[in-house]
Design brief:
- The complex is a heterodimer.
- Chain A is mainly beta.
- In chain A, 0% of the residues lie in helices and 49% in strands.
- In chain A, strands 2, 4, 5, 6, 9, 10 and 11 form a seven-stranded mixed sheet that branches. A four-stranded antiparallel sheet of chain A has the order 1-3-8-7, with no helix packed on it.
- In chain A, a hairpin with a 2-residue loop joins strand 5 and strand 6.
- By secondary structure, chain B is mainly β.
- Chain B has no helices and eleven strands.
- Chain B has strands at residues 3-7, 10-14, 19-26, 30-38, 45-50, 56-59, 62-66, 70-75, 84-92, 101-102, 106-111.
- Classes of the chains: A mainly beta, B mainly beta.
- The A-B interface holds A 4, 31, 40-45, 48, 50, 56, 58-59, 88, 90, 92, 97-100, 104-111, 113 and B 31-32, 34, 36, 41-46, 49, 87, 89, 91, 97-100, 102-105.
Chain lengths: 117, 112
């Protein structure tokens, strides 16, 4: 089954304790991205990756890191989480960058609800 | 500045009562417009992609249309299971950042 898998689904952590949210896709997609979703603010892109070893900042990259060492994996790293990073996080993948040709719709993971206390 | 605005923020309908959701966009040029459905606590689920004015796509009770300034998601004879938040996103021409611009969504509630 084609899917994007995020782990963990729920995480409560303390300020300053490094954490990683994993994301894996099995569709051989080139483009992957991370979003956070907050009430009233909608989806905001954190980082995206056009392909292996190619990553770039989205709209809200401060406090986050990513890496793309393999095509299927795109982990999100919070080196020193703070309470303002409490949010619902989504990983997404698509065959190519959105709109660049046909079949570029994004497939989203189930989400990771992160609470930083 | 590129912008996507969805209206209304929320819409309550009776089962069977047809209506439309609006997504208006301001971009220098449109590469593609996407509609997604999101259920509470879950990731958005792709519905449609529209590329040019005049284009229409249908899926069950949903029909998406596109003009040069906006897109409509028409819902015909909705059922309670159509209740969800509907998101619109745009990819602008000439956007070297390869990013989607997202609207805030319309929360649709269908009462039995």
């Amino acid at each position: 089954e084609a899917q994007v898998t995020q782990n963990p689904r729920y995480l409560i952590t303390v300020t300053g304790k490094k954490l990683t949210v994993t994301c894996s896709q099995n569709m051989n997609h080139e483009y992957m991205s991370w979003y956070r979703q907050d009430p009233g603010l909608g989806l905001r892109q954190i980082y995206y990756s056009m392909n292996v070893e190619v990553t770039d900042k989205g709209d809200v990259p401060e406090g986050y890191k990513v890496s793309r060492k393999e095509k299927r994996n795109f982990p999100l790293i919070l080196e020193s989480p703070s309470p303002n990073q409490t949010s619902l996080y989504f990983c997404a993948s698509s065959l190519r960058a959105p709109g660049w040709g046909a079949n570029t719709e994004a497939f989203f993971g189930q989400g990771t609800r992160l609470t930083v206390v | 500045e590129d912008q996507v605005t969805q209206s209304p923020e929320a819409l309550r309908l009776q089962e069977g009562e047809s209506s439309s959701l609006n997504c208006s966009y301001t971009v220098s040029g449109l590469r593609g417009l996407f509609w997604y459905r999101q259920d509470p606590g879950k990731g958005p689920e792709f519905l449609f992609t529209l590329y040019s004015a005049g284009e229409e796509k249908e899926k069950e009770r949903l029909k998406a249309t596109l003009t040069k300034k906006e897109s409509f998601l028409h819902i015909t004879a909705p059922k309670p299971e159509d209740s969800a938040t509907y998101l619109c996103a745009v990819q602008a021409l000439g956007d070297s950042n390869y990013q989607l611009i997202w609207g805030a969504g319309t929360k649709l509630i269908i009462k039995p």
